[in-house]
Amino acid sequence: MQPMHDISALCREFGVTPRTLRFYEDKGLLAPGRAGGRRVYSARDRARLKLILQGRRFGFALDEMRELIALHDLGDQGRTQARRTIALAERRLAEMVAQRAELDAVIAELRALIARGRMFDEAGPERAG
């Protein structure tokens, strides 16, 4: 029998709220069992949650996470899942690099704006005109 985790244990371990776990359950990403009236999560659910949270941190969509979880069950020792994960990660990395380039450009513009503002301020109003 595999170890079971209650909702509070998983919330504590991963720093999420019960609402987050229920959200992932509603989206079909987690499928806890029941013990009496309470949810119990298997080691598999725990592993899925870890994968979901990592994917979310990387900016993967929930549909992409659902796809990756489904690919785990193909029975090919995770090869298809690994290939798809690599493809998604490469795409996301390219997006993030582009975003960083845009952000670096905006940061440079803001620094120039601040420098011009300081020069204006130091010159005083009588010399600025």
Mean pLDDT: 90
From the coordinates shown, what is the CATH architecture of the domain at 1-59?
Orthogonal Bundle
Helical amount: over 70%
Radius of gyration: 24 Å
Instruction: Write the H/E string, N to C.
Output: EHHEEHHHH
Features:
elongated, single chain, 129 residues, Multidrug-efflux Transporter Regulator, Chain: A, Domain 2, three-stranded antiparallel β-sheet, mainly alpha, 3 strands, 6 helices
Question: What does this entry look like structurally?
Answer:
With 129 residues, the chain is mostly helical. The protein has a domain at 1-59: Multidrug-efflux Transporter Regulator, Chain: A, Domain 2 (Orthogonal Bundle), CATH 1.10.1660. Helix content is 72%, strand content 9%. It has six helices and three strands; from the N terminus they run βααββαααα. The chain has helices at residues 7-14, 18-26, 43-58, 62-72, 79-123, 125-128; strands at 4-6, 33-35, 38-42. Strands 1-3-2 form a three-stranded antiparallel β-sheet. Strand 2 (33-35) and strand 3 (38-42) form a beta hairpin. The protein is elongated, with a radius of gyration of 24 Å. The N and C termini lie far apart (81 Å). The model has no long low-confidence stretch (mean pLDDT 90).
Brief summary:
The protein has 129 residues and is mainly α. Helices cover 72% and strands 9% of the residues.
